[in-house]
């Protein structure tokens, strides 16, 4: 099994076969419009613009599991991303990324790139860790997705290379993307 065995539904409805991304490096991100990390859309789009012509794609998968930070329907999500951040990278329909109803793609990603903890030297990561520890301690257990804007980098052969937690800024991932291109 690899990343190309999965399918997702686009935000507009048609199914996207992950096999369509063979030969491209991918960044797969669970996204939300009312999250403290929502500002990352801006840098995600910049990275997408910079590397798209070199064989790079970003896929955003909206998720409402974390403090209901993606409450809108698919059309509202798409409009928010386009109008506020000029997002042009592909988006899926809303999905769950953890728990018994998690999309199989996210179960696979988490199994291939386990959670390694938060960088507690990063103020955002420290704050997120403290909030989860106090309010949702079970979220810190295991390798499942911890919060919105968890990012997975996949190479051109469909291998999951690295996981970046919510607090990792998109521009920090650029050197890793460049190595894959």
From TrEMBL:
Name under which the protein is recorded: Glutathione peroxidase
InterPro entries: Glutathione_peroxidase, Thioredoxin-like_sf
Lineage: superkingdom: Bacteria
Matches recorded under SUPFAM superfamilies: Thioredoxin-like
Keyword line: Oxidoreductase, Peroxidase
Homology family: Belongs to the glutathione peroxidase family.
UniProt organism field: Clostridium gelidum
Keyword Oxidoreductase: yes
Coiled coil spans: none
GO molecular-function terms, A-Z: peroxidase activity
